[in-house]
Amino acid sequence: MCCCRAVIVVTGRKVDKVCINKTKKTLSIFFGLLLILVIFSCKQGNDVSDAVGSLVNYNGCKSFSSGSGNFQSYTQNQECLEYIAGNGILYLKHINAGFNCCPAEIFADVSFKNGEIIIEEHEAEQGCFCLCLFDLDYEIRGLEPGLYTVKIIGPYMNDVIFTCAINLFDSASGCFCIERDYYPWL
Q1: Is the bond preceding residue 184 a cis peptide, omega within 30 degrees?
Q2: Which residues touch 104 (CB under 8 Å, ≥6 apart)?
């Protein structure tokens, strides 16, 4: 809606310059606000643009024989994720991750997307004809307090991705476990 006056001349219709300037200014403001709206509506989840994650340690082929005092908190059929946040670092421990008994090396790709922390775990080789359970330690730096979904994709999960939500607003630590009912978790 234009609140300006039009001047009609004998040779044709002519619009006052004041009206054109007001219209240009109104359109500029409208498109500027539209651009800001589009930018913020596309941003989902927490800002993880500065986040960096890495696998810092792993150990295993774990033994769950009776009397083993090292793994009393978790049973063999549980796959768990412990987390603790402090000093600007999120520490993750993936407990009972399934790998080949002779992986040569275990490595991981850590990525971030729309409030998700995605960890893809890999082994360098399948050196033996057996599987066993390992514990993997990760460090994530550059996360702001917020709600995150952690997804862990491992080589022997049978397309069942380990997923859990962590709340770095309310709790600086926690644990999430799922039960697995197939080898090597049995």
Answers
A1: yes
A2: 123, 124, 125, 127
